[in-house]
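Box 3.1. Reading complex inputs
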Amino acid sequence: MSNATQSQSWLDTLLQVLAQRSGQPAGQRAAQWAGARDWCWPTPRNEAWRFTDLRCLTQLDPARLHTRTAAPPWPHGLSQGSSRHVALQLDGHGHWRAPQGETPFWPHGLMPLPTEETTPGQVARTVISSETLPLGAQLNGVTPGPPLALQVSGADPVHLALAIQMEQAQAWLAPRVLLVLQPGARLCLSWHVAATAQAAVLPMVEARLGTGAQLEEAAIAWGCPGATFLGSSFVHQSPRSVYRRTNVTWGWGLSRDEPFIRQAQGQAETHLHGLAVARGRSLLDTHSTVFFDGPAGQLRQCHQALADGRGHSVFNGRVVVPRVAQQTDASQLSRNLLLSTRARIDTKPQLEIVADDVQCTHGATVSCLQDDELFYLQSRGIGREQASRLLQRGFCEDVLQRLPWAALAWSSLQRLLEIPVPDQP
Amino acid sequence: MSSAAAVEALNTTPYRYGFVTDIETEKIAKGLDESVVRLISAKKQEPDFLLQFRLKAYAQWQLMEEPDWAALKYPAIDYQDIVYYSAPRQKEQKASLEDVDPALLETFDKLGIPLSEQKRLSNVAVDAVFDSVSIATTYKQKLAEHGVVFCSMGEAVKDYPELVERYLGSVVPIGDNFFAALNSAVFSDGSFVYVPKEVQCPMELSTYFRINSDDAGQFERTLIVAEEGSSVSYLEGCTAPMFDTNQLHAAVVELVALDDASIKYSTVQNWYAGDENGKGGIYNFVTKRGLCKGRRSRISWTQVETGSAITWKYPGCVLRGQDSIGEFYSVALTNHYQQADTGTKMVHVGPGSRSTIISKGISSGHSVNSYRGLVNIGPQARGARNFSQCDSMLIGDQAAANTHPYIQSRQPEATVEHEASTCHISEDQLFYLQSRGIESEAAVSMLVSGFCRDVFNQLPMEFAAEADKLLALKLEGSVG
Amino acid sequence: MPACEPSPVQTGDVLLSIENLHAHVEGNEILRGVSLRIRAGEIHALMGRNGSGKSTLSKVIAGHPAYTVTAGAIHYRGQDLLALSPEDRARAGVFLGFQYPVEIPGVSNLEFLRVSCNARRQHRGQEELDTFAFEDHVRDTMAIVQMNPAFLERSVNEGFSGGEKKRNEILQMALLEPLVAILDETDSGLDIDALRIVANGVKTLTLPTTATLLITHYQRLLDAITPDFVHVMAEGRILRTGDKDLAMALEQRGYDWIDGADTPQP
């Protein structure tokens, strides 16, 4: 049996299993917004999946999938709610609960949206109107479960901390988050997603930012070999809104992160900073797309990846600047450290421009640690190996320093930072 | 005047090389099947190895699909509606220039490529190819004194079959891609260059391609082999008449550089690009690749692309030799409804191999200009280095500039750096030049050629000024 | 545009005449009725605060496309200057030395200077200079501003320091031999030595048959070049005209006493 047929039969079984789950009939949901007939399992012939093998995902057994989660190891002080802060974790039934298990107490400025006002994919469709949804979003769409739909209002920032902990093999979680930021509203959102077993998590985030609204998103996602992360997010920005996203990923057998951002009328700010640390046999893939649909929009993007061992990092950053987007100012940088002969970096920054009065730049570098930097440290008495570790840590710190306290407090991150520094010879 | 208005104010000057030569040609019927492949081979009285090469390629081509990944839009090409063999009728053996049809000599005269003894360019040897058939090669004798072979592919097959058999298809394999397979099955003629060991070719070599027919496809094949320690600089130029139909051009160029050899391949491409409404023009699907086979070998591609309706072209280097060097310098200018998807492939195999990519894309009118480039660092390429710079200039708000660099590395002790930027002709720059008495059209072309300076500097001196002029000419009539 | 000059200029001829000029940029009215007459042999200084409209006036005279003239007129030697393209103004002999000369990557300074100089020569019915003749000419001319010939090989203004850019402007002035030269803050950002060189250059190039309009903030340029007239601009108009003493008074007392109602006039 060929790989393609194997994947297709895996998908068919999966769809059958999911259809039997409680919640809305999956068949209807699928047809509704993922377009059931569009199912096309990606193959390496497909440009967007050339380097990304989905075997880690298809090694899960559809018949044994469940939604059980574990209690996240909340850092001290983060799990307590307050008048401006709420912490939520995903329970075993797909519901978001406060860490003590009760229904959340919503701080001022945060209000759950009535279910009848939320349709899955309502923002996604406005962000990528003409294109098919990414695989992660499609699979999320056919997995039954309640969404977390919130409206944010007020100029005082509200903090929302979300955590998902997976410790049992064959967990299959597809959380959906919808955020509607009223004009001028401010939300600080932090994510902590962790998997210590062969499981899959497929979060999908939709956010609509009103005029002048600000969304600061910090995401930490770490897994283990055999665990899969398929994330998709869709952000729709109104003029003068600001979206900042900082994400840090490591450890997954397979991670595919696909943020789509549309500056609907330009004149907004988007800041994307990513760090992917691919060690062992980890395959970490980021495919980002930013559309400018109006003038004077701004993008600052920097994706940093480190590949060691047999790790493989893939980055594809697409920036689309049509004629209406004059005075766009976009810069994108892909910085990569390749540290082992069995590791791999594939990067492709892409610019698509039809406007003459724009400032767009992109850059990409792939190298190992710089000799002159190593030498500088060595000349100060630091052993080469230790110097190398210090520089790797410095490379990561560039991104980590952008994380807010709510993200930095997680001990998992400390583990990433504790890049073992061997004793000097 | 604003920059947009300045560009708009430029007049359309007609394409200068758009005439058709009225000459009797020998053509076979339209369409392609195995018998056509055999017929082409028979007409050229080819040895069996070449017939087998063609048949194998044809068989592969039939199994292949036309690539669709490039940012190009064009109606489906009907491969059965093309004439695969067309040649000007002339005496079988052309012993000297006197035997060449005067109409052909006159054609090349008009194109600014005089072939006759008295008028020919000094220090440039020219192989003139008319509808894919080589009609004359100048300075053959002088080159032969140095052991340099410069002749048509047809002659090379007869006179140097062992070299052709050894190297043909060694860089671009028969089944490399759809268009290369098609070319391998039906290629007509082209140029062959062989530079023996330690010989520095004493003059510029140049092939001038002229398309004349409106329904014949053009399938040249060029092969350049530089033996150890040798060097050669080669220039290709092209023009075609104006037809309101499209002509397919699917050439293959293979370069082989052995230890310490160096090949510099320059192209000034000025095929007919179609009219201002996008009607007519050449579909240019070309595979060009150099193999840096030897240590310290060096292959340098310089291209000035101005004139196809569609350009699909990625001249690349396979850097197999240790410390070998690959270079790609490109200016691609598109205007009206032209579409270009062009760039390079630098495949680093050998340790210490280095490559440099400088690409300047200029899009104006309603054109689409895409840079697509691959830098691949293989696991053995310790110490490899690449530097790429891809700049786009946009003129007017209807033109598109895309950049698609593919960077793939599997070697930690290698360094890849890529930079890309976009710019436009700023109002202030234009005003500054105007305020010094330089008229707006001249100011625009001055700014554009300034943008391309790094690439023009790489062209052989004889052609750098020509490229500058060509660019200015092509920019005229670009819509703001 | 005829390709030759009208009859030669005599000292005292009106070269530039500006009447009730109004102009705006991006919807903001910057010039609100400027009138000014400049004759051959005169040196004028135009002073005023930032934003008073000095630079705008210079750009409008040179024909910058971003500015729209809504009323008034500019005549150059009796001819409607506003009807001419920027290049035709330059060819006719109107020169603007920019406050911030742009950098033009890739375009060789030498080639730029040659094309520009020849455009002006052609207009005056003079023979165009070929590459070699021009290079000799430009090297001689560079001595006026003590500029290193190495700058000829570089791209136009690219990577030049502030002082080098200004010298390059004066070099262009010397090559184009304008009848009216407007120098927009040519003195700003220069150290003492550079200022002296630039001032000497301007003095050398000022003839009884040409006129100069110096736009400046500071007295120090006017210490080196004595103006015949000093104009003070505010809010898009020329508020006051005097001689070199007016500039001196401004230096001592600031602009407030000119446009401020609270201070009595001297």
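In summary: The interface with chain A takes residues 4, 69, 377, 379, 392, 394-422, 424 of chain B (CB under 8 Å).
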